[in-house]
Amino acid sequence: MAVLLDEKVRVVVQGITGNQGSFHTGQMLEYGTRIVAGVSPGREGQEVHGVPVYDTVEQAVELHGATASILFVPAPFTADAAFEAIDAGIKLVVAITEHVPLKDALEVTAFARSRGATVIGPNTFGIISPGKSKIGIMPNHIYKPGPVGIVARSGTLSYEIAAGLTDAGYGQTTVVGMGGDRVVGVSFIEMLQAFEKDPDTKAVVLVGEIGGTAEEEAAEYIKDMSKPVVAYLAGKEAPPGKRMGHAGAIIERGRGTYESKVKALSAAGAAVAELPWQVAEHVKEILG
Amino acid sequence: MKLFEYMAKGVFTQYGIPVPKGKMVTTPEEAGAAAAEIGPAAIKVQILAGGRGKAGGIRFADDPAGAEAEARQMLGMELHGYTVEKLLVEEKLSIDGELYLAVTVDSSAKKPLIMASASGGVNIEEVPEGQIIKRHVDVPWGMRPYIGRDLARRLGLEGGLARQFADIAVKLYKVFESTDAEMAEINPLVISGDRLIAADGRLNIDDEALFRQPDLPRTSEATPLEAKVREIGLSYVELDGDIAVMANGAGITMATIDVLARYGGKAMNFLDAGGGAAVEPMAQAMGVLVSTNPKAILVNIFGGITRCDDVAKAIIHVKKNQGIPVPLVVRLVGTNEEEGVELLRQEGIQAYRSMDEAAARVVELARGGGN
């Protein structure tokens, strides 16, 4: 079992003819993702890595039964692309694009909620269920199937941690990037709930960072979880008030500090690793 | 992007929110002239930070001569790290009460959040939770007048004040929505006799939406180098250590700084080369890093959308064209790793696989150790 994504999910790539869209379509196909169609307005009839390209998502759904979508669409057009996907009946939208306006993210999440669709991102590396499928831009070789679920705010940092786990012999059920923006689709809690229910997931790793209160809210749920949680948080040494890239990574008004997050997670029973590579050591202690 | 108070109030005025009569000035003489027009005046420094009052950034004058004298003292003063270049000269209000009103985004609920309090005028973080009224707004439907009426009632306002408050709440939401704001705040919203007036205003605009807000004024808090790299399309931030850091992604960049600290090193700045930047902009931005004269440079890349061969090409480009006169430690793994490592090897640069080893090594080199 895996959460949200397995080898049967049929994927459409929006923005497939662009540089990133085309490159990562190749990478996903190589990993075994079932990419059934691409969308690029005005490019209908073309093929990218053998995948047929259409003008609209609706065609990809009708002709190929796509149920999930990945967006490689420039930020000003990301909300429109997400609306198109959700309106066409897509149930899982993965929005890779960064620099999406906050208001657009609010509108997309509201629309997704009303249609019962799940949005991952924006500003995410996507989702991977190792050995089954991936919808995202993560490197293919750093994962392997196994008992650990990972949910992260940050892409590269989660690669670091997944690779550390894989090297230590601990594979993953599913790895999800929530996205680094202030408003994103799925939250830590929704993913923790999914991992709690998934019989194959034996431990969960949460990769967070300073800013916002998502980790503190996650801690509230972790209290009630039966499965062990290991957390790593970036930004211990970040100077207050500096914008470190992610819109969420701003320390302001005393909230969302490293200390408050460590305190909340520790009190909830999670093991908090001080350094990225210590996550694997904690998992080893827990799973043996 | 934060707007100055006078800019925020300019926007508020466009949306019909009452603000005090006032004028932005940049010289003592202009301040005197403004006071002559306005009468007894409040003179307020215009900086992109709060907490001005306690720091002596708000003063009062009864006549033009007094206003000019105060302005002479205030212009050029250092406040919270900013040099005061602009002042707002405003009519001095008679204050019968101070309310708080703001619209922001609640990341957890994924909805706009309206906050109101009868305890305005101080830092809202210090107001007890029970004295702040919070209401979410559903994005598709927006702010409806009844929400404003409800807030006014819960604040204990009556009659004309209640009507004015409800109206201002709707208008402030309109400002928030129309300007792509992250936050629109009136603190205090002053009760002056039978009128409500926005005595102070803050408006923070979402940087990612500036492309569709051409009519809004612009401000920048970036240093010249930060602005230069931002123009290239990447993110660069100055810190106060001596090791230059290039990584890809905000999370790994922060983790890199944490790991450096673990080994006793301190980052001087960092460049976030994430987001799949092309070779040319990456090389340009890296050139900026080199030009800051760090003691050593750490490049820490775990490639996803960023390709290791592109990073290697950028490094080689800088080495050949600009030269890298300080120790360079490169950690390179992820997408197209083999190609990247091979390109670097041909140039005599060894790439590390582990972040731990690379961080330890760069700290050692920055201290003058190793070779």
Oligomer: heterodimer
Largest interface: A-B, 66 and 56 residues
Number of helices, where a helix is a run of at least 4 consecutive DSSP H or I residues of chain A: 9
What is the topology, as strand order, of the major beta sheet of chain A?
3-4-2-1-5-6-7
Number of strands of chain A: 14
Mean pLDDT over the full residue set of chain B: 92
- In N-to-C order, the SSE pattern of chain A is EHEEEHEHEHEEEEHEHEHEHEH
- The 3D shape of chain A can be described as globular
Radius of gyration from the alpha-carbon trace of chain A, in angstroms: 18 Å
Ends apart, CA distance between termini of chain B: 44 Å
Biggest pleated-sheet summary of chain B: 6 strands, antiparallel
Number of helices of chain B: 11
Question: What does the average pLDDT of chain A come to?
Answer: 93
Distance between the termini of chain A: 21 Å
Helix content of chain B: 25-40%
Order of helices and strands of chain B: HEHEEHEEEEEEHHEEEHEEHEHEHEHEH
Radius of gyration of chain B, CA atoms, in whole angstroms: 26 Å
Low-confidence stretches of chain B: none
Structural account:
The complex is a heterodimer of chains A (288) and B (371). In chain A, 35% of the residues lie in helices and 23% in strands. Chain A has nine helices and 14 strands. A seven-stranded mixed β-sheet of chain A has the order 3-4-2-1-5-6-7. Chain A has a seven-stranded mixed β-sheet with strand order 9-8-11-10-12-13-14, sandwiched between helices. Residues 244-253 of chain A have low confidence and may be disordered. By secondary structure, chain B is an alpha+beta fold. Helices cover 36% and strands 26% of the residues of chain B. In chain B, the strands form four sheets. In chain B, strands 7, 8, 9, 10, 11 and 12 form a six-stranded antiparallel β-sheet that branches. A six-stranded mixed β-sheet of chain B has the order 13-15-14-16-17-18, sandwiched between helices. Chain B has a four-stranded antiparallel β-sheet with strand order 1-6-2-3, with helices on one face. The longest helix of chain B is centred in the middle third of the chain and has 20 residues, at 159-178. Chain B is elongated, with a radius of gyration of 26 Å. At the A-B interface, helix 1, helix 4 and helix 5 of A face helix 7 and strand 16 of B.
